[in-house]
Amino acid sequence: MSSTLAGWLQALALVGALALCYRPLGDYIAKLLTTAKHLRVERGLYKLVGVDGDADQRWPVYLRSVLAFSALSILFLYGLIRLQTHLLLSLGMPEMAPHQAWNTAVSFTTNTNWQSYSGEAALGHLVQMAGLAVQNFVSAAVGIAIVAALIRGFTRNRTDRVGNFWVDLTRIVLRLLLPLSIVFALVLVANGVIQNFHGFHELSTLAGDTQSIPGGPVASQEVIKELGTNGGGFFNANSAHPFENPTGFTNWLEIFLLLVISFALPRTFGRMVGDNRQGYAIVAVMAIFWVASAALITFFEAQHSGTALQAAGGAMEGKEQRFGVAASSLFAASTTLTSTGAVDSFHDSFSAFGGGLTIFNMMLGEIAPGGTGSGLYGMLILAIVAVFVAGLMVGRTPEYLGKKLGGREMKFASLYILTTPTIVLIGTGVAMALPGERAGMLNSGPHGFSEVLYAFTSAANNNGSAFAGITVNTPWYDTALGLAMAFGRFLPMVFVLALAGSLAQQQPVPASAGTLPTHKPLFVGLLSGVVLIVVGLTYFPALALGPIAEGLH
Amino acid sequence: MSTTLTPAPVDHSTTPHRVSGGLLDPKLIVKSLPDAVKKLDPRVMVKNPVMFVVEVGSVVTTVSAIADPSVFAWAITVWLWLTTIFANLAEAVAEGRGKAQADTLRKTKTESVARRLLDWPASQAEEEVAGTALRLGDHVVVEAGQIIPGDGDVVEGVASVDESAITGESAPVIRESGGDRSAVTGGTKVLSDRIVVKIASEPGKSFIDRMIALVEGAARQKTPNEIALNILLASLTIVFLIAVVTLQPMATYAGAPQSMIVLVALIVALIPTTIGALLSAIGIAGMDRLVQRNVLAMSGRAVEAAGDVNTLLLDKTGTITLGNRQAAEFQPASGVEIGELADAAQLSSLADETPEGRSIVVLAKTEYGLRARAQGELAHATWVPFTAQTRMSGVDVDGKQVRKGAAGSVSNWVTENGGSVGADVAQLVDGISAAGGTPLVVAEKDGGKAPRVLGVIHLKDVVKEGMRERFEELRRMGIKTIMITGDNPLTAKAIADEAGVDDFLAEATPEDKMALIRKEQEGGKLVAMTGDGTNDAPALAQADVGVAMNTGTMAAKEAGNMVDLDSNPTKLIEIVEIGKQLLITRGALTTFSIANDVAKYFAIIPAMFAGVYPGLKHLNIMGLHSPQSAITSAIVFNALVIIGLIPLALRGVKYRPSDASSLLARNIGIYGIGGLIVPFVGIKAIDLIVQFIPGLS
């Protein structure tokens, strides 16, 4: 079977599997976010930390809870990393420098999982399990909690309450992420992903050299790495490493896992707002971008120019032989569109346009389908902008799902769409203006520029994948990218929650024939256009100097 | 409803102060130029963030051009200044049209002398004071030929008043004390008789003062929707500002650092200048369009709310039906010839000057060929006029008594005089009532004989022509219409069905109206209504859009947020359309503005970087002549498109009532797709010209 045909079949199977999960998973998440019932274990947890599980929070309190929880997470993780040499299971790893520990702590708390370290050379099992894996769970849950609050803004009327963060967080981890992770970790183990507590095995190879083979609890981390759109690999090679991603099937499964929750959340949205068609419209926009991106990357990577590429069946540099061009392209598109950032191939080696698309995918703001929760709230913010412009064009004060979009709502939506581009462009601009930092680039010319642009785009959008090619473990990059990740994660959350509060206070406007329908193909097209134009226009000059300049001869 | 009072043969040629509908007078552009330049004051410009950025950019390029002069630098500088001026011009033109109206209005405010009554009603002693010296609660007397010195209510007398100064209607209107026709406006002229007016406004706050402030735009505040749009535009401006500022280090790395001129040009090309420049003109023009339809909106907020209205409360009489009922049919009692009934009906109605009475005569003539008898033929007849007590009218002639009136009253008259009313008559009466009509029973008493009932006249409300289609349109726009009437539910339902309204409120009291508005609003709906009486005032105030009739009382006018000078309640529908058109114009130009950026990128980015990255030449899909000509063309296009769209901003985009989906599809097609394509053509066309300018090639 040719690699292209295999790619097609994999993609089709993926679409089928995601479509199958859309309704049950989306409905299940909607139910766990809305039910009044607590599990016994949850009640115990609430008692333990002193939370009233039945009390709802106003949006500022919800926000404070999110920020406090995240700040504590960063501190804890930072402490754990810095102190690991004194703790169990450190495998004799050296102490990590403060700037790198800060970068790593922020990275995992913000669901970015940018790694300026190399897993097998920097972190022991304790940090991997008690630090990183825990954040893989809770940072994913925080994203879903935020979007839950935003959806409640639409569904609730004349109230200042948007839900209870602690309850949302607990339920998402206990009822959604943990059970799915356990099941799929077993599937991964069954397919060859390792799961043990070994350190390094020194082996002698046939050629007489010695080789150091690492072990570790990989499968348990691998599953939540994808499922929670985290992307931080146990090993430096991430999903290209045979212990993380041994076969074509595990590769397919990992792509499925990193997409499944984000693609099901629109159903949760439709379910909660009481109109499933709204969910279909949103998921349609997400799917359009995902399909188009995957198809385009595959196309650019499979273009045969040059004898070597023809012989290999495409641009095979930086790609794993066991996955091939199509599966690698599909993985690349999915991982950059979901804020996952796991990689099974080396994006720096992609063709100019293929690599450029991975940057563009992230620039879209991680919304198609985006990170767990963050993808949907990002898309809903853009939907609000689209509804605003389109609503004017039908001659009414724009309203989305019965909530009017006035000055206050537009303020928060505008601030949201302003935040990430500002971080990306200023970060890249400053890096390019500092000769020392630019020197960290592996390549010169537009490709070198793309490496820097990729780094800041990945950090600010909380993707975490790297084009690689630049030396990022420097105090400047660690600090700057850490800040980019933190601002790129938490500022938008502030605006989303403020928006949720503002929407929840409103009285709904009943729909009529004069109301802009937000579930029809026309709106899907419009929203896609807004996504493309609002994002594309902002980044076009930067892209022109990077991948476009490189790709056009 | 007092529509009958203002039979309005609108003759615009005699009302010179009205600006004709929506067209742009080129002279006005020239006249507004000085104002446009004056608005360059940064303190004024800063209120419009988008255009303020352009102005700052113009200053920067001016400095650069002086420091390092070149044809290109000056070309960009000049066109950037023109962009700013064009934006100001749009606003100035919109305001200028209002100013012209304000000036004519001011002329009516000439110093009038008021005859203030010192101790009315105790004495008629009066003193002459300046009109401006009048205070709230003063009483003034005005006689034929005099100008009413201030707004107020007539408390004594009745007079015909020429209100053409404010309404543009030359036909005089009747103003009388008591009732709903008591309000008079300062600056209007009493044509006949003498009235005493109680002044109801402080000096400087009269209706005309407010009107002047409104049309001049002095009282203009940004509307909620305008604020929201401004926020979006400001954030887009900031994003592009950052995109361009951070571009310089990237460009420097690429080996192509850009000049200040080019960077500023890129910023201006990208930020949404088109909508930024026209936004306030659109708002002013929206108010202006209302004024041209003789509606005064007290705030822009009200105009916007009109576009959002979900529910229209329409008074039946005058709005949905013609002011009066008309005879539709004669239904004889059993044993009576229809001709006999028609004859008696006609006879009893000859002296009846009410529209109902006349319609009976007309029906008798058209259907039964009965010639209207001249008054002279019946010189000896005694006319019995209608009174509220008897509730019937008629005539005594040649020993014969004919009566017509309400079923109950006439039946009583018949039985009191020894006659009897047959069951068939009761059936006829009920049948007409059930059909929503008003039955008038006709009876006759010939000499000493017992009176007998001849039959029943079916009086019917006549639904205005085209109303059904109008309501159909409204339904398509998602607006529910509710008919308000004092009729009983049966009658109301019949008319509601005939007119095609969605719902009705029968036997409506002001309290019912208020409750209905509250109920709709609690469901999140916006309600619009018209009203003229003092008892309408609370409902007018409660409604989101309350249109008071100019003929109405001062209280009603104060309570509403719009006043219709023509006192035409049907105009509410037009007001809604104008509100929608205002929002659509904003949305359409925003879409157009943003879509334009695509073409501008394709013009400017290759111009900036094709030198270092030759591959980027492929992005020059328009085949623009040179980097300088490309950038200049984009900037020139950007400036010209503002001028080109001023007429559209002032006139508003075309609005055809239809549902949201088709409106959206249409506007995205025209302004979205159009906005993508037009600049490609425009920039290319400009490039074909500017490439011949030495220094740009």
UniProtKB/TrEMBL annotation, chain A:
Record's bilayer topology term: Multi-pass membrane protein
Alphabetized NCBIfam families for the sequence: kdpA
Quaternary structure, from the entry: The system is composed of three essential subunits: KdpA, KdpB and KdpC.
Broad class of the protein's primary localization: membrane
Protein name, as recorded: Potassium-transporting ATPase potassium-binding subunit
Entry keyword Phosphoprotein: no
Family in the record: Belongs to the KdpA family.
Cited InterPro entries: KdpA
Keywords for this protein: Cell membrane, Ion transport, Membrane, Potassium, Potassium transport, Transmembrane, Transmembrane helix, Transport
Record gene name: kdpA
Source species: Kitasatospora paracochleata
Classification via Pfam families: KdpA
Subcellular location: Cell membrane
Domain of life: Bacteria
Transmembrane domains' residue ranges: 61-81, 129-151, 172-194, 249-268, 280-300, 376-394, 415-434, 480-501, 522-544
UniProtKB/TrEMBL annotation, chain B:
Enzyme class: translocase
CDD domains the UniProt entry points to: P-type_ATPase_K
InterPro entries, per the entry: ATPase_P-typ_cyto_dom_N, ATPase_P-typ_P_site, ATPase_P-typ_TM_dom_sf, ATPase_P-typ_transduc_dom_A_sf, ATPase_P-type_domA, HAD-like_sf, HAD_sf, P-type_ATPase_bsu_IA
Ranges annotated as spanning the membrane: 72-90, 227-248, 260-284, 598-616, 628-650, 670-693
Catalytic site positions: D315
Database matches in SUPFAM superfamilies: Calcium ATPase, transduction domain A, Calcium ATPase, transmembrane domain M, HAD-like
Domain P-type ATPase A intervals: 123-216
Entry's EC annotation: 7.2.2.6
Catalyses which reaction(s): K(+)(out) + ATP + H2O = K(+)(in) + ADP + phosphate + H(+)
Record localization: Cell membrane
Lineage top rank: taxon: Bacteria
Chain residues that bind ATP: D352, E356, F386, T387, A388, Q389, T390, R391, M392, S393, K404
Family per similarity comment: Belongs to the cation transport ATPase (P-type) (TC 3.A.3) family. Type IA subfamily.
Function according to Swiss-Prot or TrEMBL: Part of the high-affinity ATP-driven potassium transport (or Kdp) system, which catalyzes the hydrolysis of ATP coupled with the electrogenic transport of potassium into the cytoplasm. This subunit is responsible for energy coupling to the transport system and for the release of the potassium ions to the cytoplasm.
Name this protein carries in UniProt: Potassium-transporting ATPase ATP-binding subunit
Native species: Kitasatospora paracochleata
Taxonomic classification: Bacteria, Bacillati, Actinomycetota, Actinomycetes, Kitasatosporales
